[in-house]
Amino acid sequence: MVVHITYHCNNEILEWQWASDNDLMPYPYFTSCYLVDGLLIDTGAPGGENDLKKFVNSLNSNQMIDKCFITHTHEDHAGGASMLNTEFGIPIYASEKAVDLLKKGNIYPKYRQMVWGQKLLPARAIVIDKPIITKSKKYKFRLFPMKGHAPELVALIEKDQQWVFVADAVQPKYKMIFGKNSDIQEDISLIYQSLSKLYEFTENMNDLLIFSAGNGILQGREILIKKMEEIENLHIKTHEYHRKLLKEGYSGKKLIRKIIKNLFGKESIIGQLTQGDLSRENLIVSLLKWEKKGI
Ligand SMILES: [Zn+2]
Q: Which domains does the chain have, with CATH numbers?
């Protein structure tokens, strides 16, 4: 297992990163949780439970976690929730939808078990719908729903500090998404709407820092515009190809495959490894479901 601890913003934010070092993986996939004045944002993956326990035991009384917020219920974010609650008595907060999902736990496919550990244990969490004030009352985090990656995903925003904790709501590149038969159903139009909503909300935050779960810290809200442009571009091109290929007589699977070929060359290897759960095909299908005015 690989654990990295990094401090940000004059040591006000501690980032705890975890990755499994499974030999079968070409490189480690990291997930991050952040500790800010006693508030832990997300809890890593089930496979990191013991490492998280060691980390909590290593904290001094000033640093100690007094509450935890789960952004969304994917196993790489909610993996330590049950343990933190039962072994340390730390209250777990989440959105109403997330609380219901956390209650159930989750069993997921083998390829995700390899990366994140065996299964997500059920966890008891409390619904929160008002801002979170941290331990020493230094920080106030607003809840900011960002659907698209997961319907229950809620980001946290500290307006005065210009910090946004987005978990997986902002990705480095939109080349494939979850869908098909997976329990994770991403929706590219909702991802776009959430990015746009965040861009509007952060107006005048010229020093915005966007803390992601696996892709580091993104600086500046222009990133959000770039992401939106990237998706808009894919959206327009997909619909253009779709219209052209329909005229040429393409339909069904062949049509989707041809759009993938035109846009990306071919389906990604991950698409094959995940049996289509995470694929370019899902991205194209989602882009086509999202109607384009004037095309
Ligand atoms: Zn996720």
A: 2-139 (3.60.15.10), 230-289 (no CATH)
